[in-house]
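Regression test case RT-17, inverse folding.

Input:
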């Protein structure tokens, strides 16, 4: 599950970066964009994918928060010294 969390976190960061770059490109191009409506729809699709990816990552982290990372010692494995 930890590996899934790492993959999702990297994917979320990549999507956030892509969304920011896309938004800056649309902003800098202004009226020179060939099809502004299509560009905005594409930007919205990346933004929605980012939000979904973030929620999935956040939920998996919350679900694993209550699980201990290390196995607890059982009474049989504890050695008593006199």
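Golden output:
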């Amino acid at each position: 599950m930890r590996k899934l969390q790492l993959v999702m976190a990297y994917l979320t960061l990549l999507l956030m970066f892509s969304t920011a770059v896309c938004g800056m490109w649309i902003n800098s191009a202004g009226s020179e964009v060939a099809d502004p409506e299509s560009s905005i729809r594409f930007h919205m699709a990346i933004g929605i994918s980012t939000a979904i990816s973030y929620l999935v990552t956040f939920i998996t982290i919350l679900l694993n928060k209550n699980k201990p990372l290390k196995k607890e010692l059982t009474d049989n494995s504890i050695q008593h010294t006199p």
